[in-house]
Amino acid sequence: MTQDATSRWLDGPVDLTTVSVQVTAPVLAPRNRGWWIALCASGLLTAVMVAGMVYSFESGVGVWGNNTSVVWGFPIANYVYWIGIGNAGTLISALLLITRQKWRASINRFAEAMTLFAVSIAGVFPILHLGRPMYFYWLAPFPDSHTLWPQWRSALVWDFWAILSYLLFSIVFFYVGLIPDLATLRDRARSKLVARLYGVFALGWRGSLLHWRTHRRLEFLMACMAVPLVCSVHSIVGLDFAASLMPGWDESIFPPYFVVGALFSGFAVVVMLAAWLRGALGLQDIITPRHFEAMARVLVAASIVMGLSYATEWFSAWYGGQGPDVAQLAFTFGGPYRWLYFIMLFCNVAASQVFWLRRARTDMRVLIAVAVLINIGMWLERMLIILNTLSHGHLPSAWRLFTPTLVDFAILAGSFGFFALLMLLFSRLLPVVSMHDVRKLLSEEGLA
Amino acid sequence: MTRYELIRGRKRPPTAWMPDRREALAMLAAGSAAALAGCQRPRETITPFVDTANEIAAGEAVRYATALELSGYGRGVVGVVVDGRPIKVEGNAHHPSTLGATDPFIEAAVLDLFDPQRSKTPMRGPVPTDWRALGEALRAQTAAHATDRGAGIALLTGRVLSPTVLKQVEALTTEYPDLQRFRWEPLHDDAERVGAGIAFGRALAFQPRLDAADVVVSLGADLLGPGPDQIRMARGFARRRRPESGPMSRLYAIDTSLTPTGVMADRREAGRPELIHNAAIALAAALGAPLAAPALPPALARLVAQAAGDLKGGGGRGLVLVGPAQAPEIHALAHWMNGQARAPVDVHAPIDPVAQNHADSLLSLVQAMRAGAVKTLIVLDSDPVFGAPPELGFRDALRHVAFTVHAGLYRGATGRAAMWHAPLSHAFESWSDTRALDGTASLVQPLVAPLYDTRSAHAFLAMMRPAADVGDLQRVQATWRAGSDGGDFAGWWTNTLAAGVVPQSAATPATVPAARLPAVTPATTGPGLTLVLRPSPRVWDGRLAANAWLQETPDPISKETWGSSLALAPADAEALKLAAGAAATVRAGTRLIQVSVRIDPGHAQGAASLQTGFGQVDLGPVADGVGANAFALRDASQGFLIQPVEVLAAGAARPPPATQHVFELAPADAGLFPVVAASDLAPAKPRPSPPDLLTPPNPAPIAWAMVIDTSVCIGCNACVVACQAENNVPVIGPEEIAHERDMHWLRVDRYEHPGGQGGFQPVPCMQCEEAPCEPVCPVEASVHDSEGLNDQVYNRCIGTRFCESNCPYKVRRFNFHDNQHWPVFGQLDARSIEAQRNPEVSVRARGVMEKCTYCVQRISAARRTAEKEDRPIRDGEVTTACQGACPTQAISFGNRADPSAAVNAARRDPRHFVLLEELKTKPRTTYLARAANPPDDGGPR
Question: CA dist B484 to A240, B224, B502, B887, Å?
Fold first, then answer.
């Protein structure tokens, strides 16, 4: 709290009312051509994804680049990538809440929305990936006539539950945080219908002290549950690979390394979303350069952890001296995918180092460029985990390379379009910033 | 009215003039059942194989002995027939050419039977017609020859050894004394024939016995490669390559491109054909021939010196074999050397009654055609338009002939160029007889009534004579009745059919004088490259090119499928600026073909090699446009060497897709294919079992296990095709192979150790006791059974592919597409293929993982029999398809829990090793290391 009555985390003349005005304006008074253009563009990309998926369902997974040695391909990489993005939102929101980071107030809402959308997209890919996707529900324990149950030792069954529980939790967490703001929308609505609609979801929120106390307790408790859940989700995704005996996969470092990777890529997407929302919705006062600076610091820290993880992988392969692991390392650095690997290293380790400079941390162009690079790098990382190991397994006779097809790329590109579509809709239907958290921040800083 | 009454054909109620829903469904079902039951047993009585119970039950497999021909030579096989459908071919243990085993050609024959590309009806030009029209035209034509004693009739056949066909031809020549008969095989044995003439003064046939030879020297002879004699040769070789069962033989090989023989050799050097020629002279000189030894490159000279030392010393028996590409003088020289080395070779008079050279025969036919001396040309089961040298202009010469008719299983290029085409029946549809390389005769009995409107070669030949047809059975019986001693012919006939071989029919051994030393001069290497034509181990001379199984079989050496590239030495490729997979034009004089290039590190410099039989244009959707026709580079002499050829870069190509890309093992991976010196082998000491945290499996009365001996695996692919036939493995076509999605459950890996010997390693499922594929399957489709099999429950599989990604051996196969519909047949209706499918094996859907099951259906069948007889399954009672096919008996299979089982004897062998043992997957499939004589040690032991 500062003595000269300016907020550390908010800019300009912000008070309790202007927060509500600024945040609810895009929802309640929409007039925006740019939004419609973006919606059309993302809708088009979504159509590409749907077309790719329908074609895959219709023709079988043979329309992708997967082969007998590299049986996994884009869908699994996309899945790991999107679940990583999905991890970050809840983690950021919950972790910052528990650690009482006040700047959380400006970013937690859209970060959580990002989680919901990313996890939903991620959840599609394992099903799409199946040879017989219509039987995906066999992963669930349901009372079928053959009395068959899932095979509990398989990491894919763990995955199924991890994704499902994480998605359900994230929805509830998001919704709980949204309730006071839904009440604000209800109260500020200009038509009866809109007021009624938001009112239903506001669950009769009146802002009483009891409401607030219960709400704060619940939110804090859920945050305490969220952190281990977030760690478990991506750890289990890591176990998909680690619980195998393929060189380059069976490494105990995978679970923590996947969690950090998820945080890393997620934060990078949050930076991109923050930059977009700030510009597009005029939230410069609420999402300030200080927020970006804080996030840039997280990115540089995470990139160092990523670099450390890679180095640990190389070191343990070399130090272990096991034939297949050493061969895998040699293939990583000397095989046909090595340029992708070098690009990945640049994006994930080198690019963020620019944030040691204060000027870079506050320059929007640098921030966005690095965030994009990090996302390219993290997707490549997931792809290379699959490719390096499966292309260069234990028997040289089965060494085969992977060549993606147009359908692979269409579905990948389309998934970004679908994510953008969901974010665009979100920005028009719900407050992208948690108003009650910002108000709380204001009051805590003595500005209310 | 129930559906059952409807099917039985009871009367319908008068009111129901239209079928109701249930009836419609019943009719649909009845219709499909009728379609499936389309395979009928032949009308005549056919006799089950001697080793089976003589009773036929629905759904039970019945075995019939019969014979298949390759380039005219008969090979005794056993056809497995279920409910009237032949579904599998096995070797006949009583037959000297198959010895109970098979090769890929034999295994694939059953696919030809059901091949939708087969010729199904007589054709007059492009117009389908019928046999009556063809018969009338043929008889009208032959009747016109009554005046000229048949002088205008020419009959062109391949090599014909069938006594009945020969008798029919003889009858024709009696009727038309001036009828001219020509005999031509594109993969001929002219050099061998002339060479025998030089050495012995007359044509002779030779049967080398590799099991009796202590030292074998191959001079460009792919003695373990494809051909009518491959199984017998491979068996003989294998007998002397297991160090625990007696002293090993020693194999030296000089070949131009790497061949299975070169892979299996104790010492192999690459040499261009001229150098092989000179090496033969040098070897003869070293053995004491008064010939000036030509200079050889140092490596070759060392090999020749070492081989000569081995042939001379030690008191063993040596054997020198020469390839068909070498000059007749070199063949004669080899006979001389074999005389010096006391070679174990059986000699008898030639089985082929035609003494003329193949190349000369075809040349004189074309000359006669061009001269207008041929009015009527009958081509029986031969495809000269495809295989004849272009300068003969066979297609063009056909225009000089007033009446041309082609008879064949496929219409092919000649059938299209001829005026008439007569579709022949498959060997499994007709009565006939044949003779093997050693003269052993076999009766051919039909396993099924002809599927289409086809006739046998006998019936076709009989159409030329106005006499009433007597039927093939009577005709063949007449042939053999004449030769029998007049006793109980019916009994003789039944017994002979049941055994598959005619007793005492092998040729009588001939005694020959010592071979003369031929006059032979060293060869000089001309300018340009020397091209060697090699018989394809997949499509032979092209007559098997329509067979999709064979097209998709990986080449033993290059692992290419669907076509074959021109093989070049790395140095030559570099000089010609050709990269692997590049397109090139090969030019010999004015003849040229387009090929793709493969760089073979084991290839001789200064030479190129190309497989025959590809590059068809008129055979059907499977073969057409696949690869290049090597025969199109030949000149009229039809040699196997073409000198000089020019190879010119021609841009980018789509090379034949290969199933293996890395052959050389890095030192770190050397343990994947151990090669042990035969002299170093000590009896296995019981190794202390390493500490183990895994719970030992419950002891079960049956624990299936397999041991594969890499010492004798010659990479012939018989097991691969046998597995495909037995387990309904689909063909996916070149595009999908190029996507690296091959479906073979069993693959044969080939490895090379840098600077050392390599070998073949067949890899079926390892059936791991601690299978990595099992715990990762989320729906428990990959499960272990009580006998140790790693089973895949196809209808439970949802296609996560986690099992294959976690399989260290990569032996699981995923149906990326709806593979059972065989798009390789193009627009043709491929449903006839369904009749070949093994009814005991499920057909897998799209999106499902499949894999080797140790032929679990055969295990189940044995278990049923054993349980009926209230006894345990005997050792050797279950034979997997791959095991049954293997010419060298490299695979043993049985119950590991039975200490006396053969598989346990193999597991106690000091050469026993486990692939990727360090992963603790505890495979049930294990290997015996390749035993070899180290390249540098002394003579035979």
Answer: 73, 37, 11, 33
- For B36, the 3-state DSSP assignment is helix
pLDDT confidence tier of residue B8, bands split at 50, 70 and 90: very low
A contact test, residue of B659, B732, B780 with most A CBs within 10 A? B780
CB contact under 8 Å between B813 and A68, yes or no, is yes
3 state DSSP class of B664: strand
Residue A6's pLDDT is 61
CB atoms within 10 A of CB B212: 18
Residues B537 and B103 sit within 8 Å (Cβ to Cβ): no
User: How many Å apart are CA B759 and CA B713, to the nearest integer?
Assistant: 8
For chain B, the distance separating the N- and C-terminal CA atoms, rounded to the nearest angstrom, is 81
Residue A65: list chain B partners with CB under 8 A.
Answer: 739
From CA B367, how far away is CA A117, in angstroms rounded?
80
B747 touches chain A (CB under 8 A): yes
Task: Tell me: pLDDT of B929 over 80.
Answer: yes
Can you tell me the ipTM of this complex?
A: 0.92
| Helices A155-188 and A209-242, axial angle in degrees (round to 10) | 150
Alpha-carbon gap, residue A248 to B74, rounded angstroms: 53
In contact, B673 and B664? CB cutoff 8 Å: no
Q: Which of B669, B672, B729, B740 to mutate to test the interface with A (most CBs of A within 10 A)?
A: B740
Structure token pair of residue A189: 């609505």
Instruction: Test A71 with B805 for CB contact under 8 angstroms.
Output: yes
- For residue A40, the tally of other CB atoms under 10 A from its CB is 12
Q: Distance (Å) from the C-alpha of residue B836 to the closest C-alpha of chain A?
A: 26
Nearest CB to B804 within list A71, A149, A153: A71
Closest chain A CA to residue B777 = A154
CA dihedral (B199, B203, B204, B210) positive or negative: positive
Q: What is the DSSP string of B870-881?
A: TSPPPTTS---H
User: Which candidate, B837, B829, B646, B677, places its Cα nearest to that of B757?
Assistant: B677
* For residue B852, pLDDT beyond 90: yes
Contacts of A127 in chain B (CB under 8 A): none
Residues in chain B: 941
Tokens of A386: 């699959």
Residue B458 in 3-state DSSP? Answer: helix
Q: Among B263, B248, B252, which Cα is nearest to B286's?
A: B252
Q: How many CB atoms lie within 10 A of CB B896?
A: 20
- DSSP letter, residue B124: E
- Nearest by CB to B660, which of A72, A135, A397? A397
pLDDT in tens, B145-170: 888 888 999 999 999 999 999 999 99
DSSP letter for each residue of B714-735: ----HHHHHHHHHTTPPP--HH
CA distance B555 to chain A (A): 14
Which pairing describes strands B782-784 and B790-792: parallel, antiparallel, or unpaired? antiparallel
A150: closest chain B residue by CA = B779
Query: pTM of the predicted model, to two decimals?
Result: 0.92
* Contacts for B107 with CB less than 8 Å, ≥ 6 apart: B89, B549, B718, B721, B722, B724, B725, B885
- Count the residues in chain A: 448
Q: How remote is the C-alpha of A74 from its chain's centroid?
A: 17
Locus of tokens 């199924």? A160
What's the CA gap between A320 and B341, in Å, rounded? Answer: 56
- Residues A88 and A261: beta-carbon distance below 8 Å: no
d(CA A343, CA A346): 5
Closest to A417 (Cα-Cα) out of A28, A3, A20, A39: A39
Query: Looking at this protein, which amino acid is placed at residue B279?
Result: A
Over residues B590-624, the pLDDT tens digits come to 999 999 999 999 999 999 999 999 999 999 999 99
Q: Is B805 on the interface with A (CB under 8 A)?
A: yes
